[in-house]
Write a structure and sequence with these properties.
9 helices; seven-stranded parallel sheet; alpha/beta; 21% helix
């Protein structure tokens, strides 16, 4: 079995940050989303991974390399334009080469492993198996109608309610999916929909089965969903002890740390309070500040005289003397944020932004 991870989308709902960042590389607890997915693929015993890339391909390649660090082989497959998930699958036909394969959307994150949905696929001798979750707003997703262990119908973003079970972006396919894709036409939004291809499998007599999400699942396409995924990821981190300044490269100067805390190397804390769960990456400097909970601070960030909670701060950001708590924000790389008498409540800043408040 092979794996296919889609990392070619443009991330329109996360602009302006997605203008300069591949959305699949945005961090949760300071680890890129796509890395969590690769780790799940490896844990499931799959070592041949194809990654669909688009305009941000160089960022993705630079971050992931050839896969050696996970003991896998990564093949990059370029998809020209956002022409749909089924188009991405068709683009990868040469890489798949007739194998069964797992496909995962690179901006989705979930707590469970892949083993159960793969086992479902083989147990029921299915042509396709999918991972479903119950949601309150199914009209925003591909929706499945089920009967016992099988799916009987699918619809992409239905206008009327048909089910509260939605596709989470985890699929297991056999080679018949390529025949099904060849039979469908672009949807009204001009894309080849994977839901249409799976529906074609059903109408052609194929078997489509499903597993329900165990734990949690998030589509990280919006700021609020990304921050929620960050919180859930932090909550899943277990058995973290306070860092030992002697072996973690952390310098504590009249600072207090409580809760789950992860730090990189050469972290300097002075007269600050760190309330876990928090991750502070390499070479960060934090002075006269309160950080956390549920906050990830990237590499080489400098924070002084500020309070930050429930935030994701990317590499090389500088936050100086902001008078009011910064809450629920995503702050891009190289952002410079300087305080004044005005107050700050919520920010969503792209890379290289300079703001004086």
């Amino acid at each position: 079995m092979k794996a296919l991870i889609l990392s070619g989308g443009t991330g329109t709902r996360l602009r302006p940050i997605s203008y300069t960042n591949a959305k699949q590389l945005l961090p949760l607890a300071n680890k890129p989303i796509i890395v969590y997915l690769i780790e799940k693929v490896v844990k499931a015993g799959i070592h041949d991974i194809g990654i669909i890339v688009g305009e941000t391909q160089e960022q993705v390649k630079q971050t992931l390399g050839n896969g050696d660090q996970w003991g896998v082989s990564i093949t990059y497959i370029y998809q020209e334009g956002s022409l749909g998930l089924a188009h991405a699958v068709r683009t990868a036909s040469g890489f798949i080469d007739g194998s069964d394969f797992v496909m995962i959307l690179g901006d989705n994150i979930f707590s469970m492993g892949l083993e159960s949905v793969i086992e479902n696929f083989y147990t029921y001798r299915a042509n396709t198996a999918v991972l479903l979750d119950r949601v309150t707003n199914p009209s925003q997703y591909g929706v499945a109608v089920v009967n016992d262990n099988e799916i009987t119908a699918l619809c992409e973003k239905p206008k009327e309610y048909i089910s509260d079970l939605v596709l989470t972006g985890v699929y297991v396919f056999d080679k018949s999916i390529f025949t099904a894709i060849g039979r469908i036409k672009p949807s009204r939004r001009g894309e080849l929909e994977i839901t249409d291809a799976i529906q074609n499998q059903l109408t052609s007599g194929g078997r489509v089965t499903y597993e329900l999400v165990q734990g949690w699942w998030k589509d990280t396409g919006t700021l609020q969903d990304l921050l929620e995924a960050n919180r859930l990821t932090f909550d899943d981190i277990e058995n973290i002890e306070l860092p030992d300044k002697d072996n973690q490269g952390i310098i504590l100067d009249d600072s207090l740390m409580t809760g789950k805390i992860l730090t990189g190397n050469n972290v300097y804390l002075k007269n600050s309070r760190i309330i876990g769960p928090v991750h502070i990456d390499d070479d960060a400097v934090i002075i006269d500040s309160t950080i956390g909970p549920y906050t990830a601070i990237g590499k080489r960030c400098q924070i002084m005289g500020s309070t930050i909670e429930n935030n994701i701060v990317l590499n090389d950001a500088s936050i100086m003397n902001v008078p009011k708590k910064i809450f629920g924000s995503l702050i891009g790389r190289n952002v410079s944020l300087k305080g004044s008498e005005n107050e700050v409540t919520m920010l969503f800043l792209g890379d290289d932004t300079v703001i004086e408040l």
